[in-house]
Amino acid sequence: MTEHLGASSKEINTLPGAISDDTLASVADVRRNWSRIIDALLGMYALTDNWDGLGAEAPGADLLSSAMDLVQLLCEEPTNQIPSRIVPTPIGTILLEWQTAGQYEEWEISEPYLAECMLKEPGKPARHWQVQRHSAHPDQGLASEPPVLSRNRTRVEQTIASEHLYQAA
After folding, report:
1. Is residue 12, in this structure, part of any structural domain at all?
2. What is the per-residue DSSP string for 18-85?
3. What is the pTM of this model?
4. How confident is the model at residue 103, as a pLDDT?
5. Domain region containing 96
6. Beta-strand relationship, 114-120 and 85-88
7. Which residues of the chain register pLDDT less than 50?
8. Does 7 reside within a domain?
């Protein structure tokens, strides 16, 4: 039957604009890995104080909500790397970590809509900055063009002490 249609699946994949099987597999892997991060964050809603048996504070619902907004924005930008992990800390904050070939980056969401960030690269001093946004209030309205959130290395290198970047969805 395939012969009568005039194109094999291999030929179809070579048509202009066609998506290769490798690209589809890659997209599926990316979605699965972002889902892993989102699922871990959703699981934090069930935490209560002393979740570790050593007196750890549970992250508050407002902190978790702002973390979800941040993760969703990171997820929407295809050039952003997927965090290696997302974990609650014993002091009630949420930590996103990226660990890659000799580099370590962390974003600690310490207050709603505030992440304290650090990048450590081999042979360089650690760089620190903040990513923040004030939560939206019903009487303020939303910005007409929400800012783009990116963690591209070039962007990190240009980051100054504080940036107003992430917008509640």
Report:
1. no
2. PPPHHHHHHHHHHHHHHHHHHHHHHHGGG--TTTTSS-PBPPPHHHHHHHHHHHHHHHHSTTSPPPSE
3. 0.68
4. 94
5. 19-164
6. unpaired
7. 1-13, 15, 19, 137-150, 152-169
8. no
What does the pLDDT read at residue 159?
37
Answer yes or no: are the C-beta atoms of 147 and 49 closer than 8 Å. no
How are strands ordered across the β-sheet holding 162-164? 85-88, 94-100, 103-111, 114-120, 127-132, 162-164
pLDDT digits (tens, 9 = 90+) for 100-111: 888 999 999 999
Structure tokens of 9?
Answer: 């699946």
What is the amino acid identity at position 94?
I
Residue with tokens 């360089």: 124
CB 132, CB 164: distance < 8 Å: yes
Domain-located, residue 141 = yes
In contact, 102 and 134? CB cutoff 8 Å? no
Number of domains in the chain: 1
Burial class (CB in 10 A: 0-12, 13-18, 19+), 91: exposed
Calculate the alpha carbon distances from 36 to 33, 46, 64, 145 in Å. 5, 16, 16, 29
Tokens 């990513």 locate to 131
